[in-house]
């Protein structure tokens, strides 16, 4: 019985965190549901409710599963990762960002996905070595990206506390004068 519950738990985890939720909803009604929920979630300055956040992430993923070839697919994955990241679903955010890199290597905003992987490794998973790898990837592969300078700064400040960063900034400004 314990073994059965263990396997059931694993199956539920895969079902919950996968982007392969099957649904009978049509693609059009999915798009409409996404737009309505986005409007509801992002028009307010209040914190996003966790259940609604999970729902929008699932809708984005469902859309991608049904229409992976559309230009919206990687955009929705990036939005899903952003919502997941800001609602304490860091592992799911990382999975979504990695899916963008794997399935949509020519996505025009892939540099953002790579940078956010570095950010997740740095701030949430506390894996500075892995964070540096992603930041360097942005710098080396996308030198003209708006995130290239941010990645350089992130590397310069890896492992520093906010107090240490402030002190470093103050000293740098002092030396400029």
User: Separation of termini?
Assistant: 71 Å
**Strand residues, percent:** under 5%
Rg, nearest Å: 19 Å
Low-pLDDT stretches: 1-18, 20-24
How much helical structure, as a percent, in the residues? over 70%
Q: How large is the count of helical segments?
A: 9
The general outline is: globular
Q: Strand pairing plus helix content: what structural class?
A: mainly alpha
Write the element-wise H/E pattern from the N-terminal end onward: HHHHHHHHH
Mean pLDDT: 84
| Major sheet attributes | none
Question: How many beta-strand segments?
Answer: 0
Explain how this protein is built.
The protein has 177 residues and is mostly helical. The protein is 73% helix and 0% strand. The chain has helices at residues 2-17, 27-42, 50-66, 72-85, 90-103, 110-123, 128-141, 148-156, 162-176. Helix 2 (27-42) runs antiparallel to helix 3, helix 3 (50-66) packs antiparallel against helix 4 (72-85) and helix 7 (128-141) packs antiparallel against helix 8 (148-156). The protein starts with a helix and ends with a helix.
